[in-house]
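Table S2 (text version). Query chain:
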Amino acid sequence: MHSYLPVILLGYLIGAIPFSFFVGKLFSHKDLRQHGSGNLGATNVIRVAGKKAGILAFVLDLLKGVLAFTVGHQLMGPSGAALAGAFGILGHSYSVFMRFRGGKGVATTYGVFMMISGVLALILFVFQFLVVKFSHYMSLGSIAAAVMIPLLLLIFGEEAAYLYLGLFIALFVPFRHHTNIKRLIKGEEARFDI
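Corresponding structure-token output:
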């Protein structure tokens, strides 16, 4: 287990860098934790600071997934990449620098899956885009894309380590959206128009 600790710590610390918080402050001079949904992710950056800021936050959060995966892969191959990717997503969602608050892990997940397969990431992105376009709910698109990940990994015949990572994400992202799910059921979720 101790040999995995550097991968776990590096993945977590990379993911914990609160880019969305910094971008929100830079563009709007507001603390995202006090505005919009209170979430430290790209969707809330869009709501509070505008689309340009939101795109920048998304890209930076995505790059955390790319970096965590790459570091893990360099240190321990596919199993290290999967572990660092998982902890990068956890770090983004529960940042030690933000008193264990953060985003919902979606942008960082895209970064991880770009490294596994660019085609897979593109399929997920298009699928999520279409769900959001027709439902007008970003949360529903994020949940639907996350749940699709293990199936796509199976179809693509990816490494077992990546399948375990996909199963983790398929459970974790809906968990992070549990309040959104409650609002969706009640018909109270905020709409998001693309």
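Notes on Table S2: DSSP finds nine helices and no strands in the chain. The radius of gyration is 16 Å.
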